Amino acid sequence: MVLLPVHCPYCDTDQVVKCGKSETGKQRYLCQNDACGHRTFMLDYHHRAYLPEVKQQIIDMALNGSGVRDTGRVLGISKDTVVSALKKKPSLNASTPRS
Ligand SMILES: [Zn+2]
Fold this sequence. Notes:
The protein has helices at about 50-65, 70-75, 80-90, and strands at about 15-20, 25-30, 40. By secondary structure, the chain is of the alpha+beta class.
């Protein structure tokens, strides 16, 4: 069993091993700390902003007129993350008719 230079995002132990793939094909990891409440995790989800539902919240808040700074504060992420999440959404305003 090979330990990885990966830290569990929940308990920060480095006692982490690979544990197959998720439904979406992402690498899944297993935390070997018995005291840790979250045994498996995906490294891609280390940052909250990478979660699809958070990304959707960013977009929803932007559409509702929330500023980048407000969005970041409410969701607990940096405004840079908000900006980059919005930039990844192609033509957010161009194709959306305003009512
Ligand atoms: Zn852990």
